[in-house]
Design goal:
Blueprint (H helix, E strand, L loop, with lengths): L9 H17 L42 E3 L2 E3 L9 E9 L20 E3 L7 E7 L4 E9 L7 E6 H7 L6 E8 L1 H5 L41 E9 L2 H14 L6 E6 L2 E9 L2 H15 L4 E5 L1
Parallel strand pairs: 3-7, 4-6
Antiparallel strand pairs: 1-2, 3-8, 4-7, 5-6, 5-8, 9-11, 9-12, 10-11
């Protein structure tokens, strides 16, 4: 697992050690294999129930962990302003090898907390990370620097990786920084973690018949024809209604947000929309306001 930190931090020294070890191996010198990272032998139980980080407004500094730095011959300039940042790429995670050691922020790394490392986000920051393969999302607090391997965009704590379902190795993720403006608007809270969502069916022709929006306390119902945006899928109907209520508060009242029963799942969907273009425009609003990448689907 490639990890590094700003100059002066323990995470930078570990990269220097690794680089010297690699040079020794290239020179043909005998060397012990470097310590491998990974989980502890007996991780605490119920880590999947650890709450996500709760975003709060924290001051940003120009210096300290946010000053420019260089690692492995590459220069990095962290952000020092409260600006949005969205990325897609690979997520990695780090565990027992760094557990209990200082991070770039000076805080002690806790592999069982909801934290992460990023090369340039201001420290501290909060970020929403989504695994598009299963629809799971988490909110983490960025308090460290890394990863420094091409293609990787974030280094997660063990628990964050577990909750996202990416402990098996590198996995594609979507990362979005939660700004102070998002926090003030109440848009930083974590979304309920959905169950895996099947692939969306092929798009069909739009329809003009629209059912009435489903009240938040109504039981799941069948979907009508038209274009829909799926925001999440749950086995627990209470989680589905929680997301429905958040979406109803953030989105315009029309066409509505419903909880729909399909294949034994409670699916939170907005719609129907008369055209594909209208649905895609609404999907952008869902991404901006809720931090959710909606799935576009259609029903004849």
């Amino acid at each position: 697992m490639a990890r590094a930190a700003a100059p002066g931090a323990t995470t930078l020294r570990r990269h220097a050690t690794a680089a010297l070890a690699c040079l020794a191996l290239l020179a043909g010198c005998a060397s012990r294999a470097p310590e491998r990272d990974g989980p502890e032998a007996r991780p605490p139980p119920n880590l999947d129930r650890v709450p996500d980080a709760v975003p709060r407004i924290e001051p940003l500094r120009n210096g300290g962990p946010n000053k420019p730095y260089a690692v492995l011959g590459q220069s990095h300039v962290p952000m020092t302003a409260d600006l949005p940042l969205s990325e897609t790429g690979l997520a990695s995670w780090y565990g027992r090898k760094y557990h209990g050691r200082p991070t770039s922020s000076g805080e002690v790394y806790d592999m069982y907390a909801m934290t992460a490392a990023h090369r340039t986000m201001p420290i501290p920051s909060y970020a929403r990370v989504r695994n598009p393969a299963n629809g799971r999302e988490v909110v983490v607090r960025v308090n460290d620097r890394g990863p420094f391997v091409a293609g990787r965009v974030i280094d997660l704590s063990y628990t964050a990786a577990l909750k996202l379902g990416v402990l098996a190795g590198l996995a594609p993720v979507e990362v979005r920084r939660i700004t102070h403006a998002d926090i003030r608007a109440g848009l930083g809270a974590a979304a309920p973690t959905p169950e895996p969502v099947p692939a969306a069916p092929a798009l069909a022709a739009p329809a003009s018949v629209a059912p009435e929006p489903t009240p938040a306390d109504a039981p799941p119902t069948a979907a009508g024809p038209g274009f829909w945006l799926q925001l999440g899928a749950f086995r627990d109907h209470d989680n589905a209604r929680e997301l429905q209520q958040r979406a109803q508060q953030a989105l315009p009242p029309a066409p509505g947000v419903a909880v729909l029963a399909e294949d034994g799942m409670a699916r939170v969907q907005a719609g129907p929309f008369a055209t594909r273009e209208a649905a895609l425009q609404a999907a952008e609003g869902v991404r901006r306001l809720l931090g959710i990448s909606a799935v576009l689907l259609a029903r004849p």
